What does this fold into?
Amino acid sequence: MPVPMSPPLHPGTKQPADPEFLSALFPMSLIMQEMSPERWIEIPEPVREIYRLWRPTPMFRAVRLEKALGTPAHIYYKYEGVSPAGSHKPNTAVAQAFYNKEAGTKALTTETGAGQWGSALSMACKFFGLDLEVYMVRVSYDSKPYRRYIMESFGAQVYPSPSTNTEYGRGVLAADPHSNGSLGIAISEAVIAAASSGGAKKYSLGSVLGHVLMHQTVIGLEALEQMEMAGEYPDMVIGCTGGGSNFAGFCYPFLHQNLTKGHKTRIIAVEPAACPSLTKGRFAYDYGDTAAMAPIVKMFTLGHTFMPPGIHAGGLRYHGMAPSLSALVDGGYIEARAVMQRPTFAAALEFAASEGILPAPEAAHAVRAAIDEALLCKRDNVKKVIAFNLCGHGHFDMAAYDAYHTGKLQDYEYPAAAVNEAMTHLPQVDFA
Amino acid sequence: MPVPMSPPLHPGTKQPADPEFLSALFPMSLIMQEMSPERWIEIPEPVREIYRLWRPTPMFRAVRLEKALGTPAHIYYKYEGVSPAGSHKPNTAVAQAFYNKEAGTKALTTETGAGQWGSALSMACKFFGLDLEVYMVRVSYDSKPYRRYIMESFGAQVYPSPSTNTEYGRGVLAADPHSNGSLGIAISEAVIAAASSGGAKKYSLGSVLGHVLMHQTVIGLEALEQMEMAGEYPDMVIGCTGGGSNFAGFCYPFLHQNLTKGHKTRIIAVEPAACPSLTKGRFAYDYGDTAAMAPIVKMFTLGHTFMPPGIHAGGLRYHGMAPSLSALVDGGYIEARAVMQRPTFAAALEFAASEGILPAPEAAHAVRAAIDEALLCKRDNVKKVIAFNLCGHGHFDMAAYDAYHTGKLQDYEYPAAAVNEAMTHLPQVDFA
It folds into this structure.
């Protein structure tokens, strides 16, 4: 890290959290990874054995898209949709299931937004013989039953969140029986379910935390080798950001090259305008979850009580952002931009018309930015090399495409009032 | 072909169909391929350029499944689910769209069962700038809206079949307003829509015909090279059969090796017990469609008026079978077997628990047979090499998995009475 990181705080004492506090939620091996100063941590052989089911993932040059755009730019995309779960999420799901199994964990709890993370962790838990309890954001639970069926096919128990399982969930439902839910609420429920299990269950998070982002860097490490095989090096790398995991997984290895080899690759994070933590949020200490049960971390946040609109990129509906990514944006090492829903779907269809793949709505944010950059190259008649991470396919998101086709998909402006209100609930802490 | 083929007949005259009759439906280049005695036909460069978006597809050894089964067998699977449409169907869709474009065709019509074929052809038509009209079997149209949204995302017009577009469809609806539809009916509607367009539209079929099967042999040709890389050769190759295209695509190149190189690889076709054309049908001349508009071909058939139960492997709900495959089964070159729905889904889940991929219900038929053969190897303590084609993933079929989990999925016995009745409607022809 070229910038210092602020320590995570205990949500009660608001003092730096020690490993013991975190050990109620995570096995010690993952806590040690979270805090490790080592540059390299080896991937264990049992994890590699499973990675081989779909890794290395392909990296394509989008020759047909370049032609369709008439751009001199070269566009490359790394495609994580070939994993069995259809996204990058299994990279960390398998690793987390392995380390938990090794530590004697019998069951995990987690939350899921669009269901990509829940599907991935369900598969990983099945592979390692762990039970799994998934709190799925209500709006996705209702609109994406197929994802739930996948989780159930791998033996997971899936609950819509807010649920009646936890006192916190029951409280949210009492206040609003029709609550759409949010990742923040679902995280709270999953954390509570683990923390109150008397050690029987551990908690697993699909993004945001350092060890999660680190597990994902296998994407960018492969991409570095693949770009070398292609004989080019990217002038810019692009990823979409919800909690930050696919973005960091793809881009951090290129940042490492910038810092150590003198490359000047632009690194661009793309988020939805409806949930714009990096571009409109505050870089401040905040709770990772809505119920203020999770550690307090320094990050770009819209406030842990902020409830984003029910956009179709469910995986990007998180109030905060990975602390490491936040610090790098704050330090000027990474650019951030926000895009609207409708232009994002338009880009996805433009991509599909040339490359065949219908991107997940989350991944479509990266597609939008890549096409925008390629069109700037066309305007300026310059050849640049653009590489982006296509973190998943849209097979479970076709209802969103239908909404787009039938004109039901809205563009949401920056929800300024809701964010301003949420900002008044940031925790008061002594750390800068 | 080690066995003679009987010529296709004109549905009216019941005499051998000439190219002119077929040219109302297909461009001459595809008709010439259908009738070609050449062993090799080159793949045109514009088709190869698109194949490169996902080909070669991977071939895996299912090491984890072997371990879970405790079998000494080596199990390999060729995975066609990595194509953008999620199945093998784009292999011929792209080729057919190319040859039609080359011939000046502006629009195509087609039918689709589960929607895999329709998705593939929609993508191919988008690539080549052709309009497309899809008749989708009603039961799938209702239960699988996501497939329709994909087709619409690629610009296709999708109608539930029986539809009100054709006089034939209106007749079917008049007799049964709640008709589930069938591939046979949908083919009739698509054929009629093309034949009555005054040359404006051509028709495209996703299976059964010789040129379609030939386009698919890219699968088996790749598999031959991949098995050589693995240093093994299959003792048996397995595929599921609806119209025969994924099966032939994977297995015919191995049959070629049997016939020319003295290999003795067993070649096994697997079909659903609810629609068992190869194992319970008659090898006879029959119409390819329900309305008796399509050419009459000699094939294993359950009768063109047979209406299969609404099983979840929509792609296998066809009354007939590819004429070449039928002749090869009749000649003893290929074995056939039928499996029930519930054991098929059980096999799919067993496969997913080890390999991560949830197979399409169609592909699960091949999985069932591969596991059965692997268990025989275990019983007899012999190491055999089993290779099968996993022709697609089940991302759009999760409702079927849910039906299985919740006990709603039925096993259908052989529908003997319905088949016997349908057999009375076979056409009377002079050709043996």
Notes: The longest strand of chain A covers residues 131-137. The CA atoms of residues 162 and 176 of chain A lie 10 Å apart.
